[in-house]
Amino acid sequence: MTAEVSRRAVLRALGALPAVLAAGGAGPAAADSADTALALTTAQRRLAFATAAAETLAAPLTTLAGRLPSDLTGVLWRNGPAEHERYGHRYGHWFDGDGMVQAFTFTGSGVSHRARILETPKRRRETEAGKRLLPAFATLPPEPAPIMAPDDMNAANTSVLAHGGRLMALWEGGSALEFDAETMAAGDFVAWRADLAGAPFSAHPKVEADGTCWNIGCVVSPRPMLLFYRIDPQGRLAAFNALPKEPLGMVHDYVVTRRHLVLVVPPFVIEPERFVAGPISFLDAHAWRPELGTRVIVVEKETLTPVRRYELPPGFHFHHGNGWEEADGTIHLDLCRAADPMFAIHDLRAVMQGDWNFPSAQPHYSRMALRPGGAGTVEQAAAAIADFPRIDPRRTGLRHRTLFALTGARDGGWPLSRVGRIDPDRGAVDGWSYPRHLIPEEHVFVPRGEAEGDGWLVGPFLDLERRAAGLSVFEAQRLADGPLWQGILPYPLPLGLHGTFVAS
Ligand SMILES: [Fe+2]
């Protein structure tokens, strides 16, 4: 099968081929224009945030079109909120639902899928009570039980870390939850040291090429505190520090460079007095305080203490791509930044009702530069909406030339409808738009050759017409050619968040 025939077969299977042929074989633009006329129904949009069909799922993927690369072998581990409704109660925000871990296993000749809802202590208590009992990130149940420790409400629903021979489901504000690779059953929360049991371990750890894993934790109560972890390649805590006097905003991600960890703290801050006034969700306890500006803390890896600080204009982001530093100490980093947090406060609630208007400011690919003398700049570097950035993991903390992200526009459909390749210096350079009824999730880069960006881009999608989840494989340096292969499952899956590919 030639590459062109393969690509056409994929597009035909997706219903996009006529437009491509009419445009003389052009790629993404043709698919875009053909698709905008196809309206999605509210019922279709709600499928993206429906509860998973069962607590455990397993099936092989059926090839829709294309050919699976035989040398792409391993497991794409993913996580995401998947139990949005339980006991007649529906959560009101994308990030609330109980986590479901998933494994897409690539054998070289096929892909199979397994998934399991994680039985966290939070979910077990609710099962025993026969009702929703504990607060979620942005939703309170009707009669919320008090929270004694962050893990009381740990939904383990955000990402997966494979490190030191363990698999862990990650959440934002609590401990990592170990789970079994075969059964996918939840194990215990990870205590990196006996006295750190229950300490927050964020959902975006960074693993460097030598296997060293860095992470942060944000403690809210009883007093705000930032935590820093260095985990050795064997999964043992090698260094730790807790900083009680740092500004806290909603810090979901950060970057590592060769010598530093960099936290960009948006002025979306917890106001503890909001908790005193009565039950309130974690999200609603935050206030947007643009007058505080964005505060940047540069922490030295060697000592895990702050060595530089910056104040920049206000903005809000969840995700970074990568960070690196020049010989003179100038730090560069990527972030997917919006003018304010309204997309997280409003739009990601509205999607639970099937409302895809997205009226708020959306995140765009931006670059930040932090000079050693104290001056910092931040600028939007690409026109499209962008989020879920990923890099070649071998470039973590080093200068990178390629960043992959979901991109798109506010056009009545899902705003992150395109897989894009961005050059941090030049902006968007390549991409492919999914047809309107296919909703892509985070796509991760899987290395093949030695050069940065030589490999595949792999990610799931939800087909709102077939009511089924699927998976795409792209040649990472030729996204505009369309997928090399796409497969489909016999069931839908709600849109998840993050994952990691473990090659075999
Ligand atoms: Fe995230």
Strand-helix topology:
Elements: H1 3-13, H2 17-22, H3 28-35, H4 42-47, E1 56-60, E2 62-66, E3 74-83, E4 85-86, E5 89-90, E6 98-106, E7 111-117, H5 121-129, E8 159-163, E9 166-170, E10 177-179, E11 186-189, E12 206-207, E13 213-219, E14 225-231, E15 237-243, E16 255-256, E17 260-265, E18 268-270, H6 273-276, E19 286-288, E20 294-300, E21 305-312, E22 316-325, E23 331-338, H7 342-350, E24 364-370, E25 376-390, E26 403-408, E27 418-423, E28 427-433, E29 438-440, E30 444-447, E31 455-463, E32 468-475, E33 485-488, E34 499-503
Antiparallel strand pairs: 1-7, 2-33, 3-6, 3-34, 4-5, 6-7, 8-9, 9-10, 10-11, 12-13, 13-14, 14-15, 16-17, 17-20, 18-19, 20-21, 22-23, 23-24, 24-25, 25-26, 26-27, 27-28, 29-31, 30-31, 31-32, 32-33
Q: How does this structure look, described?
A:
The structure is a single chain. With 504 residues, this protein is mainly beta. It has one domain: Methylamine Dehydrogenase, Chain H, CATH 2.130.10. The protein is built from 7 helices and 34 strands. Strands 22-23-24-25-26-27-28 form a 7-stranded antiparallel β-sheet. The longest helix has 11 residues. The N terminus is likely disordered. Bound molecules: fe (ii) ion. Fe (ii) ion (FE2) binds next to strand 22.
Distinctive features:
504 residues, mainly beta, Methylamine Dehydrogenase, Chain H, seven-stranded antiparallel beta sheet, binds fe (ii) ion
